[in-house]
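pls design
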């Protein structure tokens, strides 16, 4: 793990609609969770030694400076390129200190994570909720042994669900990113309906999903090498079904979308698109506080 200096720390995020600005923020580079399907291994991101992570030692100073220059409030999104609650965070507390700054500057936050470590920051999350705070847990399966193979160093789904329940009981908005769904491994009815049912029990208000995955260049190579170890023969099925396609949708995606819609309806969970907010941010309240 090495320290690096970043030149800038937040960049525009165009995946949210509303009368406010959205930004992406990543204090880490690389990720320790080791998910075999991780898109961030792709060449276009230029992160060599993906699991040998770096952290941006000047992240907090840059965040203060860049948020201080903004004339309108917005939502900070984190967790798309690396998990903000990977094991290194326990000691470094970069995400925790970032949340403190985001709360001080009265911005909102949306976090995507696979880690129950997020509950450590419950007090800050409650404070951020006055403006906007939503925690999205990624669940590609609720089968712990399978998760141990496809997400080897991430906290188990059972831990994530417990954390989700804790946050929900403390008034924090929680939801689920059910993506990717790995073809020939996770693209079955039982998997989809058990994720929806477990998410609903844990308090998830929404789910967004993609019935498939993406594969390209060295990320594809990495994924196939892991398949050869854990699922012998599956690489050949992928090659036959998807050849060099970037988008690898499940061959059963339509059926699975119906399973998802029915299960979500049965359990009272809404379906959202990626980036869609769980509620309207309350920036006005913050302006009154000023
Ligand atoms: S937690 Fe997310 S960023 Fe980290 S390895 Fe897994 S998919 Fe990649």
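designed seq:
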């Amino acid at each position: 793990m090495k320290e690096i200096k970043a030149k800038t720390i937040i960049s525009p995020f165009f995946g949210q609609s509303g009368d406010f600005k959205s930004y992406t923020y990543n204090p880490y580079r690389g990720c320790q969770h080791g998910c075999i399907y991780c898109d961030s291994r792709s060449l276009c991101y230029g992160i060599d030694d993906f699991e040998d992570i770096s952290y941006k030692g000047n992240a907090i100073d840059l965040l203060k400076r860049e948020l201080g220059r903004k004339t309108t409030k917005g939502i900070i999104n984190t967790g798309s390129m690396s998990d903000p609650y990977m094991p290194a965070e326990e000691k470094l507390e970069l995400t925790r200190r970032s949340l403190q700054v985001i709360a001080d500057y009265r911005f909102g936050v949306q976090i995507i994570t696979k880690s129950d470590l997020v509950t450590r920051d419950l007090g800050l999350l409650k404070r951020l909720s006055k403006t906007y705070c939503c925690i999205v847990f990624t669940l590609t399966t609720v089968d712990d042994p399978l998760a141990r193979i496809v997400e080897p160093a991430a906290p188990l789904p059972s831990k994530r669900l417990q954390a989700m329940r804790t946050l929900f009981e403390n008034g924090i908005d929680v939801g689920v990113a059910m993506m990717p769904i790995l073809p020939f491994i996770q693209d079955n009815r039982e998997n989809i309906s058990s994720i929806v049912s477990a998410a609903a029990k844990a308090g998830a208000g929404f789910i967004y999903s993609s019935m498939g995955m993406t594969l390209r260049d060295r990320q594809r190579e990495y994924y196939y090498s892991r398949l050869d170890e854990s699922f012998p023969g599956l690489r050949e099925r992928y090659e036959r079904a998807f050849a060099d396609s970037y988008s690898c949708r499940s061959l059963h995606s339509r059926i699975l979308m119906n399973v998802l819609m029915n299960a979500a309806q049965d359990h009272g969970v809404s379906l959202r698109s990626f980036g869609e907010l769980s509620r309207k941010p309350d920036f006005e309240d913050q302006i009154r506080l000023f």
